[in-house]
Amino acid sequence: MLNALFVTFIIVSFAAYFYYKTKQFRTSLPIQKKWYKAKAGVALGLFVVFFGLNTFIIQDTLLGNIVGVVFVVVGLMESYHSYKRAKHEGKFVQQEYELNKQ
User: Fold this and answer.
1) Which residues make Cβ contacts (< 8 Å) with residue 81, sequence separation at least 6?
2) How far apart are CA 70 and CA 52, in angstroms?
3) How far apart are CA 92 and CA 16, in angstroms?
4) How far apart are CA 100 and CA 66, in angstroms?
5) Model-level pTM?
6) Could you give the C-alpha distances from 31 to 7, 9, 28, 62, 100, in angstroms and in order?
7) Mean pLDDT of 57-69
8) Residues 6+ apart with CB under 8 A from 26
């Protein structure tokens, strides 16, 4: 049951990553590109976290636990760093849009 939940989260986070990467390539505004890149980084970090948590369930060995811990730590670091970037750059997206609208 828990495995199915993590697989669902893995699929959703990968879909969010793909969505934001597509939005990043389709926009022409530089700050908005960085904002979408940061949002994609959050989704990618969550993907890695859920993959690591799923590894704990599937691989119940010492090596599986070590790999799971590494994935969770790396994923949390990526998500946290990307979240901070997205929060910072999100402040300027509307302002950039207004300046380039004219």
Assistant:
1) 41
2) 8
3) 22
4) 49
5) 0.90
6) 33, 29, 9, 44, 11
7) 91
8) none
